Predict the structure.
Amino acid sequence: MKNKLEELRINNGLTQQELAERLEVSRQTIISLEQGRYNPSILLAFKTARLFGLTIEDIFIYEEG
Amino acid sequence: MNNQKSNQNTELIKGGVMLGLGILLFITGSIDFNAAAWTPYLRLIEGIGLFFVVVGGWNLLQYFRYKKNPVALQKARIESMDERKLWIQYRSGNNAFKAGICLTYLLLLMVGATEKPLSSDLIWWILAGIVVVTGAVYVVSLIRYENIY
């Protein structure tokens, strides 16, 4: 699953560590999310969306197949 | 802040209770009741006691570490609750479980097919091997998934 996390984080002037602290996850999780290697739980997706004031669909792009 | 304090206290209570229980079990297991039939059970109690002592001691060590540095406590809490880390642990545990079950099933098939009783010495080594292989599968899976995800 692709996402715009890195773009949003940079636009909001946050480091990976700062974003990790705000979302209460490890920095490694942020790295994996940004690289699209790990898909977040629905809870983390909601927390991320709320943090940036967007919807889940604005950040995470679901591609069928 | 209150949450941090309650986390610290949980560590202290958990550690203290486990250490106390561990010492009690270890001492109970060490007592010579002059009954040979009880010996294996006493060794078992002693072993469980030793395990509790180690775990309780570790918890207390963590408590004193976190008391010195509350930021480290918060960091450790986040790390331990990190969903990616937990997911990797679940997957690795699942692999280890499968390996353990398969090895145990193979051993049972082997014993059943040959209908020859294994010596208790051989059984000890086989069971120890299963524990080691299961643990190794868990650790290897953890490392592998850490690199993949």
About this structure: The first helix of chain A runs from residue 5 to 11. The first strand of chain A starts at residue 2 and ends at 3. Chain A has a mean pLDDT of 93.
